[in-house]
Write a structure and sequence with these properties.
Residues 339-369 are annotated as: Disordered. By secondary structure, the protein is of the alpha/beta class. It has ten helices and ten strands. It has a single domain (15-342), classed as Alpha-Beta Barrel (TIM Barrel). The strands form two sheets. Strands 1-10-9-8-7-6-4 form a seven-stranded parallel β-sheet. It binds zinc ion (ZN).
């Protein structure tokens, strides 16, 4: 359906990135709940969020992550931040007591297509002012957002999913106009409804239509309180996902194992793949050797120029210390494999680097080869 395929928009082969969310420390969780209960002002909360985002960006930079995110630290969870800003979605503000709980939103009339921005472009502008690294902005996808809405307007799930998609398309266009170059749709609920992948892909194509950025699609098996919501196999995505107008498929493998990876080649997925090589549901920190072994395994099915490396999902439920250590292992494992690729592929061997174990610190260095 699409010839798009930007083989890699990543700064270098085996680039490292994150899925989106960053650990929410206890103090931030408390402050979010205080704000939700009206005990601290919006301006104070804004200041807290900005400070936390700066720290999360710095942690990612120090770990050597190539493509960073704001950690989704402004968002209570993967759904409410977007739905609560979407005109036409009704939410009883007293519906929850703890910030991480889900609202119980509903729609009682059809949604407008472009009722004003949701504010993600402002969030992006703040993040872009804090770092020189490429940034991915994630948006929870239309299938998953619609899944959390009680429909009293459409009487037809597909119609609601597509309406949410049109709204996200307007927001994506706003993000692109403000300079965002990498957007990612997260569909954490899709794996629970494998028979509805066709509707999800139809909606994804509405979101990405005419928004000229690098688009990722992250499908995982859920990460609510660090537990998977679903079990199953990624082959449910195929062949439908081949019709999705996205550039990257971003999947979890570290926890599930790599059994599903051959399906991508078997079904002819020739675009880039974000492969989860860090298990976010276990606090045990991987060694760089284990990460490197996982990368080498993935390289049997996806060539280095189409392979991006990431944790399985967001880091939200890990402690900051564990998340930092896991990202350091990710970067070190990627560097290990990148160096061995250089050794085996470059005809004249380069001068040995004085510090061969150091990952290249800067972005946009081009290929490490
Ligand atoms: Zn995920």
């Amino acid at each position: 359906m699409t010839e798009m395929s930007r083989p890699t928009d990543a700064p270098r082969p085996l680039a490292t990135t994150v899925i989106g969310s960053w650990p929410v420390p206890e103090w931030l969780a408390r402050l979010k709940t205080e704000w939700f209960r009206g005990r601290i002002s919006h301006a104070q909360m804004q200041d807290v969020h900005e400070t936390a985002i700066k720290a999360a960006l710095r942690d990612q930079e120090l770990a050597g992550i190539d493509i960073v995110s704001d950690g989704e630290l402004r968002r209570d969870n993967d759904v409410d931040y977007l739905l609560s800003r979407m005109p036409g979605v009704e939410i009883a503000q007293t519906a929850k007591d703890f910030y991480f709980d889900y609202y119980e939103p509903r729609v009682t009339a059809p949604l407008g297509d472009a009722d004003g921005p949701l504010g993600l472009a402002d969030d992006y502008a703040f993040t872009a002012a804090q770092t020189d690294r490429p940034i991915t902005v994630s948006l929870t996808g239309p299938f998953s957002l619609a899944h959390r809405i009680r429909d009293e307007a459409y009487g037809d799930r597909r119609a609601l999913v597509l309406a949410v998609a049109r709204r996200l398309n307007a927001e994506a266009a706003e993000l692109a106009a403000r300079g965002a170059t990498r957007l990612q749709l997260d569909e954490p609920f899709l794996a629970g409804y494998p028979d509805q992948v066709g509707v999800a892909v139809e909606a994804i194509n509405l979101v990405t239509a005419d928004v000229d950025v690098s688009w990722g699609l992250h499908v995982c098996y859920g990460n609510r309180y660090a537990r998977p919501s679903w079990e199953g196999h990624y082959d449910f995505l195929f062949p439908a996902v081949l019709e999705a107008r996205v550039d990257h498929l971003v999947l979890e493998f570290a926890r599930k194992g790599f059994d599903d990876l051959p399906a991508l080649a078997r079904y002819g997925w020739d675009r880039s793949v974000g492969v989860g090589v860090i298990d976010v549901k276990s606090p045990r920190v991987e060694t760089p050797d284990l990460v490197a072994a996982r990368i080498r395994h993935a390289l049997r099915y996806v060539p280095a120029e189409r392979l991006v490396l990431n944790p399985d999902c967001g880091l939200r439920h890990l402690s900051g210390a564990v998340a930092r250590a896991k990202l350091a292992a990710l970067v070190a494992g990627a560097a290990q494999v990148r160096e061995s690729l250089v050794e085996t592929s470059a005809p004249p061997p380069p001068e040995p680097s004085p510090t061969p174990s150091e990952p290249a610190p800067a972005l946009a260095q081009g290929a490490a080869t």
